[in-house]
Design brief:
Elements: H1 2-10, H2 16-19, H3 71-77, H4 81-93, H5 97-111, H6 130-145, H7 149-160, H8 163-172, H9 176-185, H10 192-204, H11 208-219, H12 224-233, H13 240-257, H14 268-277, H15 286-294, H16 297-315
Length: 324
């Protein structure tokens, strides 16, 4: 299990609850973490209860993958993790990048379901409060979804132990999602050719995860065009951590706007934030949460401005306009 924990940590996000990534830094619920540019998105666990199922938003099916549905949509639609594993493990074992990402998400959901004593996480919200019952409900969904925690951990360790090597092979072969992930992981040392590659991917990709990664990679690059955008968007009294949080939210917003699976209501990600961080918003879409609870009005306007300038000058997707 230790090997699995290390493998997950190397993925740059699956242990955000332990590391402290979550609401609290800027605005009503901004993230604070060792890497604020990796959104609180990696442990996306849980499934709606019977009462939720009528209103839970499930992403539309896509025919752009051998499974005829996006692998991350499989995770969101599955009744149990075992059901999702049966569809994803063969593809993940063969090196399919999206299936690999989906499997690592599944491992993250269930790996943190119990502590070392075999007990589920405690609920430290005030008994009788709305938050207390929302966390209880989220935990019930998580426990129902993670139907075989030991089996999930074993299967996940088999896949995630070679994650980086599989990702590198896929990137070398030209896989767009793998390339974007590699650019993100190398974001502090991108050369001119890598920066232009990130811009090309950001301009043309239909994969929300790739778009999110290249926006984050560009933000931490040394490209003078990004520096100029930051000077125009942020005021001189804002420190780097505050700016980083806004940029992280901008990348997440862009991914949601382009169909990111985990951005609907009653998502795995929302249940994870509720269970581990006490931030319960499953009745909202991720974009509604970002707009109404996670950011101040000033930060939301700066996020919109940042995306508009990034789009106008580099990505040219034609999606964002400066706020009025």
């Amino acid at each position: 299990m230790l090997a699995l924990a290390l493998a997950l940590a190397a993925l740059g996000g699956l242990v955000f609850a332990v590391a402290g990534l979550g609401p609290g830094a800027t605005g009503a619920g901004a993230d604070s973490a060792t890497d604020p540019h990796r959104p609180a998105a990696a442990i996306r666990a849980g499934r709606g209860t019977a009462a939720d199922s009528a209103t839970r938003e499930r992403p539309p099916e896509s025919a752009a993958h051998p499974l005829q549905i996006h692998p991350l949509q499989i995770v969101q639609r599955a009744d149990t993790a075992s059901q999702a594993y049966r569809q994803l493990l063969p593809l993940a074992g063969a090196g399919d990048v999206l299936a690999l990402m989906a499997v690592t998400d599944l491992v993250g959901y269930c790996y943190f379901l119990f502590d070392e004593s075999g007990e589920p996480p405690g609920n430290d919200s005030p008994p009788g409060s709305r938050e207390f019952w929302l966390r209880e409900q989220a935990m019930e969904r998580r426990q129902a979804f993670c139907d075989d925690p030991a089996g999930h951990a074993a299967a996940g360790e088999q896949i995630t132990s070679g994650y980086q090597a599989r990702l590198d092979r896929a990137a070398t072969a030209g896989d767009e999602v793998a390339l974007a992930s590699r650019l993100f992981l190398s974001k502090f040392s991108l050369g001119p050719d890598e920066i232009e590659l990130a811009i090309r991917i950001g301009a043309t990709t239909s994969e929300p995860e790739a778009l999110q990664d290249v926006i984050l990679a560009l933000a931490d690059s040394s490209d003078p065009r990004i520096s100029q955008i930051e000077r125009e968007v942020f005021n001189s009294v804002q420190d780097a951590a505050e700016r980083d949080q806004v940029v992280a939210r901008a990348a997440e917003w862009a991914a949601c706007a382009n169909g990111r699976t985990q951005c609907g209501r009653f998502s795995h990600e929302a249940d994870s934030d509720c269970i581990h961080l006490g931030e319960c918003y499953a009745h909202l879409t991720r974009m509604e949460y970002l707009r109404t609870r996670a950011m101040s009005g000033q930060h939301f306007e700066q996020m919109q401005h940042y995306l508009a300038l990034l789009d106008e000058r580099l990505l040219r997707r034609g999606q964002w306009r400066p706020p009025p």
